[in-house]
Protein 1
Amino acid sequence: LTLTCKINYKNQARLSMLKLDNHLSGRHFLHIPGPSPVPSRILRAISYQTIDHRGPEFGAFGLKVLDGIKKIFKTEQPVIIYSASGTGSWEGALVNVLNPGDKVLFYETGHFANLWRALAKKIGIEVEVVGKAGADTWRWGVDASVIEERLRKDTQHEIKAVCVVHNETSTGMTSNIAAVRKAIDDAKHPALLLVDSVSGLGSADYEHDKWGADVTVSGSQKGLMLPPGIGFNALSPKAIEASKHSKIPKAYLAWDEILESNKTGYWPTTPSTNLMYGLHEAIDMMQTEGLDTIFARHQRLAEACRRAVAAWGLENQCLDPNAYSPVLTAIVVPEGMDADVLRKHALEKFNLSLGTGLGKLKGKIFRIGHLGDCNELSLMAALSGVEMSFSSIGYKPKASGVVAAQEYLK
């Protein structure tokens, strides 16, 4: 099939050819760590006719969605819903509670912790980075004692916030957020706790209120099973108070006008109405299944995947069993193998998308997502595709990971 389209640019006609050389039958197996597959039920909801976002029907709908999302974050406090990606929500968390030149402590656990730090520097925040002493911080979860030690030394309370990633998607690690809160409290330090749970929310247990987070950042395209396009900031009273004194310039991302409009179910700007339909449906699906059941399902699939990795004779990027992620598994390939060659083969031959290595892990790992609308057969298909791809590129696993996973799941 050849699709030909004519494009006019600067009064010159240019011919663009897009060749679709073949069609792969069957479903596409999307097993990257997000965006995750969107269930048909949510896709149907997104397709509903758009309504007036200033009309009475939308106000009632908005209130229902705002109440429902609180239950997913396990909070009684407000949750800001942005028409933005998780990156926009990162920025929203920072610009609403900080001032130009404030110092923020970032704990490095992987690529996304680094990206959040880089964003902070761009908006005029002074950043300091800590990690697990004497170890590759991209292979271990957050060591709360490191944060406590640093905060105890900050006797002048120059550090205004601590930023950590709950589930580090680049490395397959989930960190103990309650322990971080305890470390801040034990150090008797007033720093705010800002948490990225973009990939954790809805797949790994998360308790915004109980764990003492001041701002929790998340997005729509992971455990919530939606397309990208909605971002979240779950707030605490302390964060809201800090926002009243923040001097970093902001407009679209400012909480004050959003919070005021949300009181009646509206937004000060145009919301992503159709994605909100999908969010409403996702919340209903998750409440029907039950959060505890969802978290147990993710843990079960993750353990099956790890058993497959062990049977293959390969290594988990995460070296701390207490930090193994229920969202994804990051797998270190043997010396001499390019993980992206494996991924390319899996996609072209078996219609299977696997996650790439990010940052310094490019070509060294691949990632299997087992999050969102994923069940046993979905995971088994992904593991089969990986195992067949191993054979095709000349790698002989120690044993069958498919059989190991099957034995655990049956």
Note: The chain has 13 helices and 16 strands.
Protein 2
Amino acid sequence: RVRYTLEDGSRTDRDLLRLAFETAVEAGADRICFADTVGILEPDQVKDAVSFVRTCFPYIPLEVHLHDDRGLATANALAAMDAGAEWVSCSVNGLGERCGITDLVQLLANLHYRGTRPLRNPEGLQRLSRLVENFSGSPVDPRRPVTGKHAFHHTAHLHRKAIGMENLAYSWIEPSSLG
């Protein structure tokens, strides 16, 4: 199997983008991958770019590779999926060049929240994150969404009081549903 990734697709002229993917498909690529290599796109721009590629190549599986330089990789991945991308390049804890790429755990948590893909093993998200943290030697930021130590931790008196009455008062999702 061959996946062809167009490096820096986000800054590539549309005609050249189409030509590069056409050439790859004609040469036997089974999947094409649109890359936002420097993480400059916003969700609407990703949706537009993926829609363009999807229109040009409706029957070729499409992957996106989205860097997190602006902190938008997860939002961009959701927008790409909404526009027809079937695959998302991910890493655990967002590891990768510079600020990393789409975080698998964050993406899975958001797909679960949307009702798109239920989690089969919520506790596995936390275990996976810690395992990668230990092996990579790259600590998880305590404020990292989903897996950070403080992701569901509240210190403000008002927040703690409200959570005592309603567990979801200051949470976007039931913390236990993510392990």
Note: The radius of gyration is 18 Å.
Protein 3
Amino acid sequence: GKGYERWAKVFNLKQMAHTMTYLSEHDLLDYATLEAKAKATTQRHDNLRTQIKAAEKRMEEIGTLRTHIIQYAKTRDTYVAYRKAGYSKKFLEEHREEIALHKAAKDAFDKLGLKKLPKVKDLNAEYAEILSQKKKLYPEYRRARDEMRELLTVKANVDRVLNMEMPEAGREKDHSQR
């Protein structure tokens, strides 16, 4: 309807005014400079996101390893008793859950190729260090994300304006590609 058309026109004008203000404030009046800045900002955002994802993955690995070490330590005596009982089926039935936890922990250590188990205290220290690094990266990541979004929006607005100024034949070709 007419109301939507009016709203869209006003909204588009406000977006373009914001775009022009942003371009002049950040001295990005050259398209190549705008494109390079958008690419650099996106790359910075992606690098920070990759660092945070790597930290989260390592924290998850440490948590899993820590759980297995604790389970292994808690069930070790039961497993030793099971071996001394000659792998008795009766003993296995009585302590099935503990033995299964012990074997699962042992399998996890074998998959990781661990010869000597790290100390839980060392794992906790590493976890705390990684967590503090992640917390330091997050505010920078948020700023980079917001800057990237704004810059990509401005670039998209500029691209849209530049495409509108193309000759009629060029615009028809562009529409047929969609």
Note: The radius of gyration is 30 Å.
Protein 4
Amino acid sequence: RDYKVTGVQTCALPISGAVDAASGAVDAALPLPEDYVRIEPGVFTMGSPGGELGRFAEEVQHQVTITRAFALKTTEVTQAEWEAVMGNNPSPFAACGGNCPIETVSWNDAVDYVNRLSDAAGLARCYDANRAFAGLGCLGYRLPTEAEWEYAARAGTQTAFHTGAITQMVCDPVDPNLN
């Protein structure tokens, strides 16, 4: 499978003492890296309501509690960011330019990317050589969990996007709430 690497995030910040070692929570008093935002813990309804456009049958709604704050990148990983860390640009849309999102990379590639971010920042890797996840207490860069990603994307709303519901199932025209 290919994935767009979006919202690559970290539990830890590349600042000594930024994370409480016991809870793994990001210290609110310390600055975040550029392009990251602090996401506070909270409770939300995960999954899509029955009538939502694009809903899959297995998307049963259920309550989820995010127990610790985390930092999330506010934009997709760009082709330039990927190339600076990985030394290549696998995008078939490389002509789009360095500010365009990286795409067509595997989950394994994304894990290698965040491990290299951790290495560069002097942080622990969150995935071992077999790409097994070290857990939420890991103090290095990692991918967001499905629940963390959905919690952040909904941004306190009950709709598919923080800007509203899905109105278009095709790319042309672009859904105004997604755009």
Note: Residues 127 and 133 are 5 Å apart (CA to CA).
